[in-house]
Amino acid sequence: MLNWLGFIISLIVILIVARKNLPLALFCGALILGIFTLPLTTIFDKLIFTLTDLSVIFLALAMGLIPMIGGSMKESGQMDDLVNNLRIGKKGIMSLSPAIMGLLPMPGGALLSAPIIERAGEGIANDLKVAINNWFRHLFVLIYPLSSALIASAKISNLSVYTAFLYLLPTFFIALFLGSIFLIRKVQGSIDYTSPFSLKGLLIPLGIILVAPFLDFTIKKVIMLPIMEIATFIGVCAAFIISLIVSKVTLNLKNIAIKMKPWNFTLIIIGMFVFLNIFKASNVAELIASIPLSPETLCVIAGFILGFATGRVLLPASIILPVYLTMGTITPFIFALVYSSIFFGYVLSPVHPCVCITLEYFNVPMKNFFRLTAPPAFIIFFIALLISIIYTNIF
């Protein structure tokens, strides 16, 4: 009972404290969850483990540099060049740019599309920009055959990733439709282009944005690094340096840092991993899996809860899918139900990195994000839940 109470209180604290300070909210939520579920020595060990984990450190440093890339591109006019020469309309830019960035295998990519949405969405409320950036960033990731989460989850379920892809397509189209109805439909106006199209003006800023994930992906594939996040850090550093070199104006890095507050993004990543490591050490996941429901319904509900609680896809999948395997074979249909539920719990999660850093970038309260994103996410969850109940009664 105390473990359940601690888990619920930790999420409530995260939501409340995040109104003022998101990194602090994550640390407080982790501490409260740990106090209710773990010995103090274990909490201390997990804290030290996270703070000394070089993979977390390099990832946190990379996350701190990414907003500096956006800030330098904005101050130099490179972001204006990109928006002015990406001639696909206001709604097209705001939906497609995060979707494209989402396919790039790089942590923190939401910060790369955020400046584009900021520039293209002038006159649009920041909370809507946050919701659009987060929702559309993950649409293609849901069905992307090269997604590490999808590959690993399909393997756990003894399924081909391409079979999983086909069965996830209905969820993709439902999510695309809901995103258009709940979010993109609210985007009004158009972008006024005052200058002729410039291929150079398009390719230079687009190249800066793409060089980071390109190097990240290439280095990880070519060089067996002891810490893979070093590749992410190298890619981000290269993009930042290039953005400074090609700038037509002299940039004041101190002023950019004051505006972008890169330290907040670094602390968010550290706080997120502190919470995640304490959650993994607790037995909350096992408690959720022990709820007396049918396997299909239990896995859909527990998957959504764990996706929401951890801000991850693979971690909940690695817990939920093996639980189902102990009770039966996972068919492609059941896999799609469970994976969709996990995925949209993750999309909505307050400890999801893309959510955290986008909220910080646009300075939007978390409650505003939930107000816009929760309806379409819960619609998908309830569809999966209803189908699981019907499936259980039929079979």
Keywords, please?
395 residues, mainly alpha, 21 helices, 2 domains
- For the residues shown, what is the average pLDDT? 85
Number of domains: 2
Helix content: over 70%
Beta-strand content estimate: under 5%
User: Could you tell me the radius of gyration in angstroms?
Assistant: 21 Å
Oligomer: single chain
* Number of E strands: 0
End-to-end Cα distance, whole Å, is 33 Å
Low-confidence blocks of residues: none
Order of helices and strands: HHHHHHHHHHHHHHHHHHHHH
Shape designation: globular
Per DSSP, the total helix count is 21
Structural class: mainly alpha
Protein architecture, described:
The protein has helices spanning 2-17, 22-37, 40-51, 54-76, 78-85, 90-103, 110-120, 126-137, 139-143, 148-156, 161-182, 199-222, 229-245, 253-260, 262-281, 284-289, 295-310, 314-325, 332-348, 353-362, 366-394. With 395 residues, it is mainly alpha-helical. Helix 7 packs parallel to helix 20, helix 10 (148-156) runs parallel beside helix 18 (314-325) and helix 17 (295-310) packs antiparallel against helix 18. It starts with a helix and ends with a helix. The chain crosses the membrane at residues 29-49, 56-73, 93-114, 135-152, 164-185, 197-215, 227-251, 263-281, 287-309, 321-349, 369-391. It comes from candidate division TA06 bacterium DG_78.
